[in-house]
Prior knowledge:
Rossmann fold, 6-stranded mixed β-sheet, Threonine synthase, amino-acid biosynthesis, threonine synthase activity
Amino acid sequence: MNYHSTRNSGISVSSAQAISQGISKEGGLFVPEKLPHFLYSDLLELQHCSYTERAVRILSAFLSDFTAEEITECVKSAYTGGKFDQDMPAPISYLQNGKMNMYLLELWHGPTCAFKDMALQLLPHLLTKSLKKIQSSKTALILVATSGDTGKAALEGFKDVDGTRIQVFYPENGVSPMQKRQMNTQEGSNVSVCAIEGNFDDAQTGVKKIFTNPEISRLLEQNGIMFSSANSINWGRLLPQIVYYFSAYCDLMANGEIDYEGEKVNIVVPTGNFGNILAAYYAKKMGLPVKKLICASNANNVLTDFLNTGVYDRNRDFHTTISPSMDILVSSNLERLLYDLTGNNSEKITGWMNELSSSGRYKVDEDILSQIHELFYAGFCDDAATKETIKEIYQTENYLCDTHTAVAVNVYHQYAEAEQDEETPTIIVSTASPYKFADSVLNAVSSEYRADASEFEKVQELSAVTGTPIPTPIAELEAKKVRFDTICSKDKMGEAVLKTAGIKYTV
Ligand SMILES: *Cc1c(COP(=O)(O)O)cnc(C)c1O
């Protein structure tokens, strides 16, 4: 199977090339030329398989230039050996008291307690094998600008992986105290973390400049190093996400929750960059019986408006919310959906994306919009409603969820009412442990909440109040040594990268 670029359908590369490169030269994203199809008989078989077996089956259908042994090796390194609680990467939580058929797909049992582990535990293995396949003997230097979850998940995924180094930049005052501590205490011999004076955009812009700086590229080249990306536009990050939608459906089959062949489920996804919900869309196209894809946003509701009206308009205020991983105004992966819905029309996509970067706005055609309405339901909720939902689901179901998951639950309720659909079994994607956002979650469920308590006091308090266990990776953080405390100015980021690369350099 080869991969095309969304901005030039004439481009055709292997999966190893697509994963190594991350993004196509003209700025397009790599997409598979054709989606493999899974039949009901395949699902019947897969329902008796482990998560790793399911992952191998689905990945093999996409990575035709990898051998079965290579894929198995990658998948086992990612998902077994205690990286995830009880080696169960994507368990389903069944709610007891609900009228509605809600199933919480918990994707936060990995080393950083957020769903990005699902892809970032696997990507390093896919990437190092891809580099070998394209006969690159270079060390891959991964550069990441993060607003929180991605940085930590990438550090954990790449730590001590042969042939790679990783440098993470985060805005000094733009991540939560827990996220900062997670990154600053990172272990591993090939990792580097640096706070920068500025906001997330400064970090992101700085990284883009380093990627395209000819002097830095020359120095790296001389030293046998190449840049690579762990960003969610990399196909190697999207592919692992398709697996858990199939896996969840198979678990529901195995547990007798699916009553007949082809019974459809709804899937609700708290959405930021449109990566996670795009993977659900691909799963549907590959034959998974899905009724509606429900896209849940916070106050940054640019996607809600787009999916409802067909107009994408990023010219609006940016809101800092209690679900920060969804605070985003340009959802990169939407480009892949549009490419698919236009029947691979890369001229059209290029036009829209150019409009987006010049005026911040584009409008899709009526026929695209009607396809979108057929596939998706979109809604959003603000911080107050998010907290209200955390409290309600805790009180009625005794289920503690994080802020991002609560946005999904809230929007699901909106959907069920608007579309009069309480019967369809519904998978709600739970993307982070409530302990990762202990401050907001505690505030929502406890009257004892003290804003001035330390982050770890809030974690303890949340556990005491709710009787739920603190995830080990978070419990262990308090005692960990801080390894990185450098703060650098925006214009010193390049030097930090060279230092990480082990290159002596004087200006
Ligand atoms: C990244 C993230 C999201 C958004 O996922 P996208 O793939 O960017 O849509 C939602 N919740 C959490 C906790 C995240 O870390």
